[in-house]
Amino acid sequence: MGKLYDKLVEDVRFVEGIKACFNCGTCTAICAASEFYNYDPRNIADIVQTKDDEKIEKLLKSDTIWYCGECMSCKTRCPRGNAPGLIIMALRALSQELGYFIESEKGRQQLAVKRTVGDWILKYGYCLYLEGIGTSLHPEQGPVWDWIQDNWSGVFNRLGANYKGDGPGILRKIPEESLEEIRKIFEVTGGKKRFDKIEEMSKIKAKEMNLDLKESGIDNDYCMHVYKTNNGKHNRE
Amino acid sequence: MKLEGKKAIWKDYQKEIADDKYFYVRSCVRQNFFPGSETAFLKILRDELKKDVYEHPCHTTCTGIGYHGDVVPFDTAMTVVARQFALMTESGYENLVPSCITSFGLYTEILETWHHFPETENKIREYLKKATGREFKIPKNLAHASDVIFKFRKEIAAKAKHKLINKNTGESLKVVEHIGCHYSKMFPSKGVGGAEYPYVLTGMIEEWGGEIIDYPERRHCCGFGFRQYLVQANRGYSIACSKKKFDSMEPYKPDMIITNCPGCPMFLDRWQYTIKEMEGKTYGQNGEGIPVFTYEEVAGLVLGYDPWDLGLQMHQTDCEPVLDKMGVGYDKSKKRELIINNE
């Protein structure tokens, strides 16, 4: 008992996120996720405080830890200065470290986040690089987005961007030496290790689910499955 | 003079904002969705206010969306941010200004973490040295770009070509202000006005002639939620949050919404379009949507800039109703104008 709790305590965000929760429920009252999902941050604080490995492992393998939107409204209102949002971030990190994230529908989505935002960071130096990301995956972007996508460089040049250019400016080309520094930082600090773990565990799950998973990109059966699947059982009744 | 009520609370939450020599770091979301806003910010600071703003060509994402999407570990995010600090230090600047609220929140979280856990700062210094050979000084001043515009709101008002006033009725436009969650919900003392009464946008709006709407869900999240929008299966969360806000503000008949976060104006703009497509419901007047603006777009309109130089053509919910009320002139035929480089 307590081994998983000890792992959580290694994360400064966990140490800052929970000091002495007295289960008042203010976090749940203010929580944007609680209104939408069947989710209760008070319960998260309650479970981790038990230090019970069995209960924490169940949490790490569940959909529950993936419902939070990390808006951090809970941090503002907690009368004890706790932050369930920070507890969640520590739980999500541990769930990925241990490979437990593939055990839940919401957890498996981490591959889609890694193969979009994660890979864009290393390839372009931006969290978002949306040229070519159209309304088929983002219908909410509307007709204006179709127009922007069809005229990408013309729109961005019109607005003073330095699109793919050298030097400073909007959507400039990040120099290769800078990208190399970012990649080195990922190697040294554990970023690459996490990316590799997400890929490794997703491959195992894809095989188990008999879904095709290509080496890169999201245009394959497993990525589209995790990106689009919603079993409809996550919300409040 | 005795300060009472909310004014007394705001007094407690005033923050120091440097008045010149800024090291500017860009926003990933805004570069893709609101490039005109960053262009306007630099134009206002450099051309109107004659300030020194430097942008290093080698700065990158802070990884904030990856960090809050939980694919980037905290140590990695801290070291990437430490690299931005190193670029600032090497360039001879001390005042850091992020364009993005997620970045501002992450920078603040990192500086607070290092303050409370000095051993973490030492670890990150070692990581950065090992990965890049770089060293850094901690910024003397950290202010979000909206803090800087707030600081100079009176100077902007003094040059105003237009006010947030309906030119036909002479009445102030009714404005909803929406503050990005990571501006001050995590560290209230780091935002102008704190988390409960953030004054950063309200100060601009009041100075430029608008009237603030105080509505029940004023502080509710727009619904980005990082993974809750990034992954298609989760987007119900995102639109539900925005809808909750629209339903709450609708009875007050807002003329416009002003935001200070990269994602919020995009979500509040696009989810109005989506709700209209799904349910035929609109929240503005005469069957239109409520136009949504960034604070730079509004500052630019106040200063008399061309709406199409500001990038209002990239909005899905049309901005023209507000332009017409303010008396801002615009050439409809140039709304879709492009500049093609023949290279």
Structure, described:
The complex is a heterodimer of chains A (237) and B (343). Chain A is an all-alpha fold and 237 residues long. Chain A folds into two domains: 3-98, Alpha-helical ferredoxin (Fumarate Reductase Iron-sulfur Protein, Chain B, domain 2); 106-228, no CATH class. Helices cover 57% and strands 0% of the residues of chain A. In chain A, helix 5 (41-50) packs across helix 8 (84-97) and helix 10 packs across helix 13 (176-189). By secondary structure, chain B is of the alpha/beta class. Chain B has two domains: 17-145, Up-down Bundle (Glutathione S-transferase Yfyf (Class Pi), Chain A, domain 2), CATH 1.20.1050.140; 153-330, Rossmann fold (3-Layer(aba) Sandwich). Chain B is built from 17 helices and eight strands. Chain B has helices spanning 5-12, 28-33, 35-48, 64-68, 74-90, 101-116, 118-132, 145-151, 153-158, 181-184, 200-207, 227-230, 235-249, 263-279, 295-302, 307-310, 320-326; strands spanning 22-25, 53-54, 95-98, 141-142, 174-178, 211-212, 256-259, 292-294. In chain B, helix 5 packs across helix 7, helix 8 (145-151) runs parallel beside helix 11 and helix 13 (235-249) packs across helix 14 (263-279). The model of chain B has no long low-confidence stretch (mean pLDDT 96). Classes of the chains: A mainly alpha (237), B alpha/beta (343). Chains A and B meet through helix 2, helix 4, helix 7, helix 8 and helix 10 of A and helix 2, helix 3, helix 4, helix 5 and helix 6 of B.
Question: Any descriptors?
Answer:
heterodimer; A: 237 residues; mainly alpha; Fumarate Reductase Iron-sulfur Protein, Chain B, domain 2; 2 domains; 15 helices; globular; B: 343 residues; Glutathione S-transferase Yfyf (Class Pi), Chain A, domain 2; four-stranded parallel sheet; 8 strands; 47% helix
Strand and helix layout:
The complex is a heterodimer of chains A (237) and B (343).
Chain A: H1 3-9, H2 12-17, H3 26-30, H4 32-36, H5 41-50, H6 53-60, H7 73-77, H8 84-97, H9 105-108, H10 110-124, H11 142-150, H12 152-158, H13 176-189, H14 191-208, H15 221-228
Helix pairs in contact in A: 5-8, 10-13, 10-14
Chain B: H1 5-12, E1 22-25, H2 28-33, H3 35-48, E2 53-54, H4 64-68, H5 74-90, E3 95-98, H6 101-116, H7 118-132, E4 141-142, H8 145-151, H9 153-158, E5 174-178, H10 181-184, H11 200-207, E6 211-212, H12 227-230, H13 235-249, E7 256-259, H14 263-279, E8 292-294, H15 295-302, H16 307-310, H17 320-326
Parallel strand pairs in B: 1-2, 1-3, 3-4, 5-6, 5-7, 7-8
Helix pairs in contact in B: 3-15, 5-7, 6-7, 8-11, 13-14
